[in-house]
């Protein structure tokens, strides 16, 4: 048997320590010019410490023909990252040592050792998801960051950032509540929040019709329900409302209009029902073609680049409510349902038209 240019008897070609038979796949040549199996080579000449080695060989503590006894703790290899110090401001922010490519962790243009990249308080290992960069230029896990730099007060945070002294039942009645005063910094006229007149910063900005609102101020003017871009309605009084309050205050009134909230105005006497039409007159050519009043976004219907009120968007003859399926735009700049359009502008004579509409007598 050949190994390292030497000839061996087949019976002698075995591990120098455990006498295991060897072949070309499991032979390891040691620095002492002897041959070993992979397990014995790893124990004698391989790296030592927790985490090195693999398989059963890394878990064995055998000596030559017995078992080694451990009276103390097994030594753990901890590389000293401070043995090579870097120039000031160029090394690891935690230990000040030089950081090489194989152990580099990045956080906000700063380079950490992998072993140093842990929470400053609880020393939990971090990654790009868990790491929080703090104002003191150190890194924290999310829980420790919340306890140190997060908002304080009832309702903020969760169970992770609750006080450490919490044991069992706690009386919450005396816990202070954080109330944000949005009027503490007043804005110039016409530049602040329309509701409280305070300065609106980027982190709390909500846009509606070219105006900036605080998030806590962006609520219905009547019922104070929090609003979003879908539920907000811009009203003629320059306030914002939820859809239900807008319909009750500015929408059409009467039997058959709106939904449940709009029925509160019904008295039961049909003769007294009427439609409340908008009162603001629009500049010429910009309002509703039927009533010439201002058309707001919450009630507008579009037809050939003209804006109509929803309550005005009906047939000019029979006042039937219209939609995209039965709308006909006429030469007189009015809108009609299909039967009325045919009666006024359709082809007349025997054999023209279809359905019951053609059986009507024309003047």
Task: Give your account of this protein's structure.
With 363 residues, the protein is mainly β. It has a domain at 1-68: Cysteine Rich Protein (Ribbon), CATH 2.10.110. The protein is built from four helices and 16 strands. It has helices at residues 38-45, 142-149, 243-250, 338-345, and strands at residues 2-3, 6-7, 28-29, 35-36, 104-107, 110-113, 132-133, 139-140, 205-208, 211-214, 233-234, 240-241, 300-303, 306-309, 328-329, 335-336. The strands form eight sheets. A two-stranded antiparallel sheet has the order 1-2. The protein starts with a strand and ends in an 18-residue tail after the last helix. Mean pLDDT is 75; it is low at 56-73, 158-170 and 259-276. GO terms for molecular function: actinin binding; metal ion binding; structural constituent of muscle. It is found in: Nucleus. Its main location: nucleus. Keywords: LIM domain, Metal-binding, Myogenesis, Nucleus, Repeat, Zinc. One of its GO terms (cellular component) is nucleus.
In short:
The chain is mainly β. The chain has four helices and 16 strands. The chain has a two-stranded antiparallel ribbon with strand order 1-2.
Which key terms come to mind for this protein?
single chain; about 375 residues; mainly beta; Cysteine Rich Protein; two-stranded antiparallel sheet; 16 strands; elongated; myogenesis; metal ion binding; actinin binding; LIM zinc-binding domain-containing protein; repeat
């Amino acid at each position: 048997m050949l190994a390292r240019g030497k000839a061996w008897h087949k019976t002698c070609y075995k591990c120098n320590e455990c006498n295991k038979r060897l072949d070309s796949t499991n032979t390891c040549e040691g620095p002492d010019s002897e041959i070993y199996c992979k397990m014995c080579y790893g124990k004698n000449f391989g790296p030592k410490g927790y985490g090195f080695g693999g398989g059963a060989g890394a878990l064995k503590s055998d000596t030559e023909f017995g078992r080694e006894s451990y009276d103390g703790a097994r030594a753990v290899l901890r590389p000293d990252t401070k043995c090579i110090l870097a120039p000031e401001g160029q090394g690891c922010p935690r230990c000040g040592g030089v950081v090489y490519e194989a152990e580099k962790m990045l956080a906000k243009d700063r380079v950490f050792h992998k072993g140093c990249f842990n929470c400053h308080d609880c020393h939990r290992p971090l990654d790009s998801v868990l790491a929080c960069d703090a104002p003191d230029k150190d890194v924290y896990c999310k829980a420790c960051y919340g306890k140190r730099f997060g908002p304080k007060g009832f309702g903020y945070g969760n169970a992770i950032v609750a006080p450490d002294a919490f044991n069992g039942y706690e009386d919450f009645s005396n816990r202070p509540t954080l109330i944000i005063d949005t009027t503490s910094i007043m804005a110039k006229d016409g530049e602040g929040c329309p509701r409280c007149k305070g300065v609106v910063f980027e982190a709390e900005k909500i846009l509606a019709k070219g105006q900036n609102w605080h998030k806590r101020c962006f609520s219905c003017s009547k019922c104070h329900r929090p609003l979003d871009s879908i539920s907000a309605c811009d009203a003629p009084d320059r306030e914002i409302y939820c859809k239900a309050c807008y319909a009750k205050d500015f929408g059409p009134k009467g039997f058959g209009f709106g939904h449940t909230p709009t029925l509160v105005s019904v008295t039961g006497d049909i003769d007294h029902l009427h439609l409340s039409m908008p009162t603001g007159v629009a500049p010429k050519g910009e309002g509703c073609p039927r009533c010439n009043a201002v058309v707001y976004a919450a009630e507008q219907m579009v037809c050939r680049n003209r804006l109509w009120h929803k309550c005005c968007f009906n047939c000019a003859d029979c006042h039937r409510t219209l939609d995209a399926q039965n709308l006909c735009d006429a030469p007189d700049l009015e809108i009609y349902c299909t039967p009325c359009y045919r009666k006024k502008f359709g082809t007349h004579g025997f054999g023209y038209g279809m359905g019951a509409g053609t059986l009507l007598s024309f003047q």
